[in-house]
Specification:
- By secondary structure, the chain is mainly beta.
- The protein has one domain.
- It has a 14-stranded antiparallel beta sheet with strand order 8-7-6-5-4-3-2-1-14-13-12-11-10-9.
- The chain is globular.
- Pfam families: DUF3108 (PF11306).
- Keywords: Signal.
- InterPro entries: DUF3108 (IPR021457).
- It comes from Xylanibacter rodentium.
- This is DUF3108 domain-containing protein.
Amino acid sequence: MKHFSTRILLAIVMTAAIAATGRAQCGIENKAFKSGEFLYYDLFFNWKFIWVKVGTASMSTVKSTYDGRQAYRTSLITRGNNKLDKMFMMRDTLLSYCTDDIVPLYFRKGAREGKRYYVDELWYSYPAGKCHLKKHRIENDGRHVWKDSEYKDCIYDMMSIFLRARNFDTGKLKKGQTIPMPISDARRLSNSWLKYIGKETFKMEGSNDKYRCLVFSFIEREDEKNHELIRFYVTDDVNHIPVRLDMFLSFGSAKAFLKGYKGVRSPMTSKLN
């Protein structure tokens, strides 16, 4: 169960992204969201052929300051309910600060997953046109692990890549196209990418709401094999909000469905009713 929470978090914050190179390209004009946006999700797990609600997730984006400069402060909180707690404790909080043009500044993840608790932190700087990451991890046994890494390309975390990705023009994507995903945590840089599946109309579970969606598959290469981790559906409009997430786990499958939203920047033109 140890990857269940991480998979849910990653799924919710992923839409579509294109790897950027060079310091000048780390930023992007924001047209997809505004301060005061809130997204809410219900989480489900397939238990003995029955889909059972096991928790909730919520994401907020507001204007704030970081190190004396204006920034977007984005947080994501997942909470398992009593049914999930009997199998696996899940209490996770992610926090991210980015500039107005979505250049990452700081990232933190505090995660209680089962009996394990750990913290990941990233501090970003950009000396000489490169991307420098100061990494800090607090292990379950209380050990503090520090590491510095520098890259010639722009690197993102699970939160900042979401904000950046929502501002890409996905209308130019072709079926089967793959897109590199430069995502790091305090341990490593992942070897992962997106594959564009195509467009589909999705009817929300438990309601009559329908959405025109772009469908993507998130793939990671590990142990010399490619693994599809997530298939997700995002609104086919300028908001690019995930409305459905299918997660493929070693012990089963899980889903997340958009329950509600407020404060979105643009009309949800992908909603069909």
